[in-house]
Known about the structure:
Chain A is mostly helical and about 240 residues long. Helix content of chain A is about 80%, strand content about 0%.
Amino acid sequence: MRHLAQSSNAVKKRKGILGGLALVAVATALCWSLLVAPPDAYQGEVQRIMYLHLPSILIAYLSYFLVFIGSGMYLWKREKKDDLLAHAAAELGVLFTVLTIIEGSIWGKPTWGVWWTWDARLTLMAILLLIYAGYLMLRSAIDDEQRAASAAAILGIIGFLDIPLIHMSVYWWRTLHQPPSILRPDKAPWENVHPAMLTALAISFAAFLLLYFYLLSLRYRVGEMRQEIKALRLEREV
Amino acid sequence: MTLVKQAYLLLCKDLLLELRRRDSLLTMFFFGTLLLFVFHFAFDMPPDKVAELAPALLWLAFLFTGTLGLAQLFQAERDNHCLDGLLLSPLDRGALFLAKTGFNLMLMLAVEVVVIPLFWILFNLSGWNLLPQLFLVTLLGTVGFCVLGTITAAITLRARARELLLPLVLFPLMIPVILATIRCMEMVLKTGSFGDATPWLRLLLGFDVIFLTIGVLIFDWVIES
């Protein structure tokens, strides 16, 4: 018992350090993207939302990839920790997808003149949101825990494999989104983007990554604690 | 070989049950027809305008009737613990998947074969010669729908309010099929041939093959849960 308390203290400490790092990184990223990086030549100040928008999207995709990995590992090994990982990642994925859509809307209104348009990338984000919101609903609708985990794992795999097909179909359907300005085929990133902008974006991305892993560890711990409470209750009933 | 044979036997069982009771087929057929009437009242417009909307309306009808069929798909297995009996038998789970997909596919195709001409009659559309191409697109789309539909019906089997949950989970995954079939049918109705829509056909075919393979491979995990 004492050993357990010690190890959980060590985990807590590590988590605290991760949280502190994330806080510092987010503060630095905000300073850099709001104060140091220059405003965009065409879009002006509103372009700064890119420093939040781009990392949010990448984090959302990372999340869905983790759902896929966790689901696959769970079906293969049947270990509860993989399922907890998939569940935590799915929730955070939905959170960051919603954030991406909101940030995009705030940027879209002054730039395109509309809050929402049925462009390929926007549509793709909306569909991802629907798929993974369905994933969370499916989980909560099945009472038996193991069955819920298996069913969710299947959906986590199918949903991820469906993404390329959805991507292809909505792209053929329509594309209006501004073409990528950083990863362009004709120019290297440092040739057409101000270096301070790239630095701001890199810092921002690192900050989001730290924040993400901090949140993921918290959410994962919540899942673990639920398991522990359930076990304790069961023990007491017996 | 055993996989196909097992699937065939299971399919025969389901067809026999359906022929005796006719629950799903009749409900789906009447619901599909009913939707056509509802559409007619909702869109009171000349035939040339309806022809532009035809693919979308038809696919809406197929999606709804298909969901109705899927909700009933494992009903026989749920009652009296028949699923446990099936799973206790030395049966390849992939065969169960193929049989259920095939059964739902046959139901939906039976409905579609009637509903598409009925749509043409009710809305006074011309271009009857284009129906074979439309049927081909519909067939490919329906295979995709049934393949993913069977998997989602199986994973929502033990959920609360599963009839409500099924379309919530299934429809977002079906976006490629919905887009591809409707674009293909629009192209056929507009130009009389597939023309520029062949990439969409390939996408549909790819969707069907990918998820059919995945379904056979993972149905073991889907159904034991």
